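Q: Protein A?
A:
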Amino acid sequence: MGRLAVVLLALLAPAEGAIRHIDLIHLSHTDFGFTDHPSVVREMQIRYLDIALDAPDGLRWTAETTDPVADWWARAPAGRREAFLRAVQSGKIEVAALPLNNTPFLSRAEWFHMLHWLPEDLWNQVKPRAAVQNDVNGFPRAGALALLDRGIRYLWTGINNDSGGAPFERPSGFWWKMPDGRRLLVWLSLSYPAGYDLFEAAEWRRGPVPPAADTRYRPPREGDFLRAGEASVRAAHRRCLERLRRFEAAGYPYETVALSITNQWRIDNDPPLPLLADFVAAWNRLGLQPSLRLTTVSVAMERLEKEIGGRLPTYTGEWTDWWANGTGSAPREVAASRAAKRFLAAALSNVWGEPSESALRTAAGLYKQLCLFDEHTWGSANSVALPDSLDSQGQFNEKARLAYRPMALAEWLLSQRVRTRLSNEPEGLYVVNTTRYPVSDWIEFPITAFREKYQSVEGAGPIEFLRGMQPWTRPRGPEDLTRENLAATFPDNVPDQVARFWVDHLTGIRRLRLSAAAAAQPATENRVTLRTGRDAWPVSAQWQGMPLPLFLPGMGDLLSVRVSGFAPRWIIKDIWGARSAAERDRLRMEKLIETPAAPEGNAEAVETPYTMVYTQALRHPALRWATRRLEVWKTEPRARLTFRFDRASSDNPEIYFIAFPLPAEGTLPRASAGGQPFIPFEDQLPGTCRDYFAIDGWVDYPTPNGHWLWVSRDAPLVTFGDPAVLARRTQAPPGAHRIMAMVFNNFWYTNFVGNSHGVMEYQFDLIWRKAIEDAGGLAESLVTRPVVLINPALRENPVILRDLFRP
């Protein structure tokens, strides 16, 4: 290059800034789906480790997730394993600590398995030092504590701003202080592919998300971009300096900036990019500044801690996730996953004694499947645009099986534990509470479980017989069908199909006896005063000694929010991206339509010896039918709402809420995520989601008048006050005593389910206590049904017991 050219380049180059070094972390963002069917993704991610292992030594590769590492290790021969460990030890490959990019719906037990995904000997050899959470807009504090418990002090994030965003300006870092005083160093990088944008002005990807099997598209080859020739590198340098000056103009104060970089085939789920090493080498050979360092995530984090750790701010609080609302697009699958977690907790309860190694291995495998269900990818890139395509259906089918399969196998594991423990016990009817708190509730049976005509349960009381389904028979007429039975195949309103009896203060294992003799109904004190409204639906319930009612008018009301206008999901993006709060509020008023469900008639009231039951049909223009049922306990301040509706098929975006107004004005609620308590609106990182919250399933209001505990069996998404759809709240609403359970939400335009329809059921419990020490444990007891075993006098065959029922 001539002297004049050098002078001209110097004159054209932007002024030198404060940033002296750029750390590039090369990785593949792991989506279990989105670009390809999850089975294809998992196979590709395994092969990417081979590419990284066989690439020239100049390439550095961070395995973003441990799940592919575990799969690769399981099938790799000894020689490849040794080569892999050498690559890790030399710093060519680094394994990050987490198996997947998570949603905030993981339980405490799941977080344990998240950090024990790799075989322990492999974990000890690869020694993860940093965790990566890309794409997702939040990270549960329970996860941060689980990382610290495993010796992980660094969390790298590459948040996607679409429909959410990071809590602070990026790139930046902060210390995240936990309730126990420990700290995690968090780096807020730009979005995970952003390193590419430092050097290239145009995205090379086309499509933008062609599947890997589509041979009309290809991975990039040397010469497509990031070319290593001098002219190309210098052009990339000029582009880079322009971008860095923007960082500095926005207030970036540090000498080192760290960004991740992905391939450009599809960006997500893409292989290593060998040409990146040649580009970085050429840059540094030319002596360009800032220097480029192709490195791995923990090396970059350690360097950042050393250089700027003492200058970073410290924050506390839960890191709530803007993307959590997408989980509401698949309510039945979420309900199945939560049922699976309850079955597993019951199966591992100490009421059965110590679990065997085999039972623990089975449970660990099921927990890992549930972790994968709670991973952040819920469908194809076209899951909403083309909801009925084979690709969309295939990807969600694979996702859904991660809920339904563990649900079935966890229930089977529980039954094995029950039979192993009780089959050799004396004849009897055994009812078992697997939780820590006593339960007073109905025990129900299909009538076919009885081999004789029983009328009572010794030690409990009379058996009641209810209407229900009579399978494999023909309905005799409309009177045999409920309004819900649109299929009209088997009758579901036939007398004496369900038997039930009441158990009081059940703890542990209780042996009872079925009897053919009638029994007198024990006297029950009715301590509740119920008030109903104009349509005979309860508006309050208050027990003796209770200073305020259990709930206020509006309990169990259903409300939907839809979008009015052409291409409604683009209107959602318009509202989200409004330039000001005033503009956003105007668009919300114009474009969001709230539609409450209305009663079809008065509620029907039925009194049982232990409860009062109110059932009411509702009508709503988007539902084929809806029914709400409120059961109120007579002797203790407790109620259970069961809500069922049939959503008509519709691709339009809608959100459904069920309201629970409580007499707790002026008190902020307490909730938990992953077993870690927090106070919404107050105990949160600044800039995190306050429109809705992913919770373990309970909300507690600790007021001077006692505790109101609300528990959700199926719908772990809530907001407070009004629906707050697209509100982007920054503070608590004045009506935070009103819980709004978000039971359905398909507002997303990709990656989640576009059109869940059909029958959906939700159950909620509400209880009052003067004091509650363990809200999570009490909540678990309210939603975990007692286990029942009918044990005859006949002895079980020991071979059957050993070979079939032993876990």
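Q: Protein B?
A:
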Amino acid sequence: MAVFEHNYRRYAGPLTPEWSRFLVIPRHAYRDILRSKLFIAFFVACFLPLLVEAILIYLRHNVNALAILKFDIRQLLPIDATFFQTFGGIQGGLAFLVTLLIGPPLVARDLRNNALPLYLCRPFSRAEYVFGKMSVVLFLLSTITWIPGLVLFLFEAYLEGFSWLADNLWLANAIFFSSIMWILLLTLLSQTISALVKWRMAASAALLALYLIPSVFGEVINQMFATRWGHIISINALRDSVTAGLFGTFEPATRQISFSGERISNEPPLWCSWFVLFLICAICLAILSRRVKAYEVVS
């Protein structure tokens, strides 16, 4: 068939850099997420603990406020590792709820609508596709975990002085690495479940069950055998152990009172908790590598 018109030309305009092409995925994902006013309201409410703890830090250094309140808040609320660990625990719980809302539909929607071939025929790889989806959760969780945690740390350092900053710089590392560990775990779990379960409600229910059911079984094991090794199958307990290790508050032995008397049971070693967390992440990556792939239907 003869072609008489030769008006078609190759695109000669500016090209997007290769390293940033995957950013089109989170850009459109954020657009869908921010359409929900309920989610925006909940996400803003996640910053209330930051406001409360910032006020507590300020009151601790305000002489006039202490005189009005007529009690010494310095002794009542010391700003130490436990203070920042408690803030991280609260924000970690809120991070799980945010993940429960936004994580499951990210990959499930593409798999349900057979959209992966359309994504992967574009100039980015499977790894960039997965990272683009993960970056949606990573960014939103970072804004409510380690970023406000470091803001509180810097605020306390500003009020205390450089000497406090130099002596407690390790706290900033603990805040950052404990939050990053939890964020990566939640992100990988949510994306893996999203890749396995194509329906949003079922994926959210599966993520919630994966968080709650092992914790219940772990506590049953602890009570039956008077041990703490049941925590090794609980995601929340693993996170608490690793976080306590980073903040220097980990207690390897725990006293328990049973019907036969008081017993001392040992927590799983920190290296076991780290190993199980790395194992979970490796399994999630293997499943994502297997599930996220383009296919061609040949008739």
